[in-house]
Amino acid sequence: MKVLLLTPQLPYPPHQGTSLRNFHVIRGLAEACQVSLLSFLEPGQSVEAEKIAPLAQLCRRIETVPVPQRTTGKRLQQLLTTRRPDMAHRLFSQAFNIKLLRMLQADDFDVVQIEGIELARYLPVIRHGSPRSKIVFDDHNAETELQRRNFLTDLGQPRRWVAAAYSAEQVRRLRKFERWVCQQADWVTAVSQPDKAHLETLTNGRAPITVIPNSLDVQQFQLEEADAIPSDIVFSGKMDYRPNVDAVLWFVDEVWPQIRQRRPFATFTIVGQKPHARLDRLKNEPGITLTGWVDRVEPYLVGAKVFILPFRVGSGTRLKLIEAMAAGKALVSTAVGAEGFPVAHNRELLLVDEAEAFGTAVLQLLDNPDERKRLGQAAQQFAKQYDWRVVVPKFLEIYQQLLK
Q: What is the pTM of this model?
């Protein structure tokens, strides 16, 4: 079976949600298929053979196109002169278009898989260039629902009303666009049951949708304590991503003072690339470390006493939760942070939504090593079902149904 994957950034090294999902999908598919990859290349990413050797070994062919650069003026023009959502413009490139058509003409692909809504505008190109190929749309987030939550969160903060207005307009546009791509694809995959439910409502049940959760290499996170970089509390994620920024700022503003009052020397480490300007004020906060880009997140996870997911907005599922669980960590999360996973309060983690209760839960774990150990062991057992070796074969089942 010949499969072509379209990805928004080169999925190696696999350092954050999108690239992690895509790398492990490729890793699993390569065991049964001939996998080719067409990807955008972000600034700082490399296609040098020695730097992407693990990815190159999995793929029959890899082609890349630089991420298109958009000025603020261009984004405003697109907002005013088109009816498409911003995400539909973000990665639309004539160079990608041309390379995609050439790949479709050179190979007889059985399946073309679109990884995320930012690449959805290439669906008509696939239909034109390879009419017999089946198209799978892997929707990493229920984007319409994500923007709706962004809107509701920002609406409650007067200083964020401009952002709220932007989100309100994007919800309207995304609703039509996301419905269109789901109905045009031959199959849709969602990362969680809640996302599937949102997409089924959006499409009026007119698209086949299967839940295939995010996955990782569970064994990769089972490190020795000697590898640890210690910190009391750890959060990880791409730090220019709006839900991550909102989560960290809510925690620092509403929860952190309570923790520092009880434990004046507590430490909080925020691990992730490209910290947004909204986080600049945290750089001088006592006890807080913004790491920026790191080669490996695993040592920070192993060194954490408590891992937090203080999310108020978001959709899909958060791979960081499974990473921390695979590392045997005790977690404190909001309901949104753990959404899409069949977890229960006080079984695999602590689930709390209010700021004061969140702080109390974190302090309870910091004060109680035995409780951290209990939850960490339960979390580690839970994470095993999300290993790529278990999850990715579900894509092959879809392909086989489509190609009957």
A: 0.81
